[in-house]
Design a protein that fits this description.
The protein is mainly α and 287 residues long. It is built from 18 helices and no strands. It folds into three domains: 151 residues, Alpha Horseshoe (Serine Threonine Protein Phosphatase 5, Tetratricopeptide repeat), CATH 1.25.40.20; 86 residues, Serine Threonine Protein Phosphatase 5, Tetratricopeptide repeat (Alpha Horseshoe), CATH 1.25.40.20; 35 residues, Elongin C, Chain C, domain 1.
């Protein structure tokens, strides 16, 4: 029996509309397996599989039941589908993989499960990027899992920029902190726009202080020839914060940045091997 599209009085779940545009135009061909996966009904899903339901059946937009399970954060349903042959790297017409869907929902359990079953953490730039989606939504744990699986921390995606740029644009302070701690390039953003430009546009004083503390260049100019200070509203807290940092950095700050640059991306791991006094280690680690 073909399922009718929901009426205007029965809106699609908000998370599905926002996270997965592929679900908006394909309700007529969603299978009972899609429904069970989306709603987290494990017994119904297992019964359908036992009755011979195709776990890789997709909608017109190539949305699979695994996409639905991950978008809902239903790890048990996702596991049942994967154990029965669901394609872990299936791609929708909009370039979304189940891993992207898991990052939409913020399900670290689904992210780990998918990676265990061979999901690709680092995708081609033309596909929807899981790490950018995780950062955009402030799902720091998902972001950290992906980075631990060798995702490029500075991958610049067209229309989005780097993960750090996305974190600054959406004011995800926890993600900004962790990305900087793990060695993200502080001036690499979206083409000529730096993360500092993004923070200035969003009037995010806390993020501005973080970026400058990690060595952001206040003199960088974007495609319009504007610095972050040029983007700040006159007499705003953002302008005051940027003006405060305009002078020469302290010698201690220069030393910290130099040491971190020499140690590279593994800085947060290598500093403990230097056998420095604990207060100095904490200073180098921004603790």
């Amino acid at each position: 029996m073909v399922r009718a599209r929901p009426s205007s009085t029965q809106p699609l779940p908000l998370l599905r509309v926002l996270c997965n545009p592929d679900t908006q135009d394909c309700w007529a061909d969603r299978s009972p397996l899609h429904e069970a996966a989306a709603q987290g009904r494990l017994l119904a899903l297992k019964t359908l599989i036992a009755q011979g339901a195709n776990v890789n059946l997709v909608t017109i937009n190539r949305v699979s039941s695994l996409h639905e399970a991950c978008l809902g954060g239903h790890v048990a349903c996702a596991k049942a589908l994967l154990e029965n042959g669901a394609k872990v790297n299936a791609v929708t017409v909009h370039g979304a993989t189940p891993l992207f869907s898991a990052c939409c929902s913020g399900s670290a359990a689904c992210v780990n499960l998918l990676l265990e079953f061979g999901a690709k953490a680092q995708l081609e730039v033309h596909l929807a990027s899981p790490i950018h989606e995780a950062v955009k939504r402030g799902h720091r744990e998902c972001m950290e899992i992906l980075l631990a699986n060798n995702v490029n921390i500075d991958q610049e995606v067209p229309q989005l920029g780097t993960p750090l740029y996305v974190a600054c644009t959406h004011q995800r302070v926890d993600c900004v902190k962790k990305l900087l701690e793990l060695g993200a390039s502080v001036d690499h953003g979206h083409w000529l726009d730096t993360p500092l430009h993004a923070a200035a546009k969003q009037s995010s004083v806390e993020v501005i202080h973080l970026l400058i503390d990690y060595g952001a260049n206040l003199k960088c100019r974007n495609a319009q020839g504007k610095s972050a200070l040029d983007l700040a509203a006159p007499k705003s807290r953002v302008e005051q914060a940027l003006l405060l940092w305009e002078g020469p950095p302290a010698l201690s700050q220069l030393c910290r940045l130099c040491i971190r640059k020499c140690l590279g991306r593994a800085c947060h791991q290598s500093i403990h091997k230097l056998h420095l006094p604990e207060p100095l280690q904490r200073f180098l680690l921004y603790q």
